[in-house]
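Revision sheet: structure tokens.
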Amino acid sequence: QVQLVESGGGLVQTGGSLRLSCAASGRTARRYAMGWFRQAPGKEREFVAGISWTGESANYADSVKGRFTISKDNTKNTVYLQMNSLKTEDTAVYYCGADRLGRNEYDLWGQGTQVTVSS
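Predicted:
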């Protein structure tokens, strides 16, 4: 059973940076397209960034383009989200998701990691 474990969240000031990690257990995880989502209090979960299983293709929500970078290290079964120029509106619980069937449907989730950006 593949599991996803996020880490790297925390408290940072506006303009600061954080790098989130999502470690996937199981060798088959390297073949999954992966993504990052976030959910702020009182709001629905929203897409942040996604990356193909090879790591060669990525896409981003408009709100984070130019500030966030998603990357994938298949040798470590880990996906990263580098977040720069953080804003207060980036405050949320960030979740890592796996698209195991390649249908652009994320069907496996981690437990989430809190990111808080203070002004």
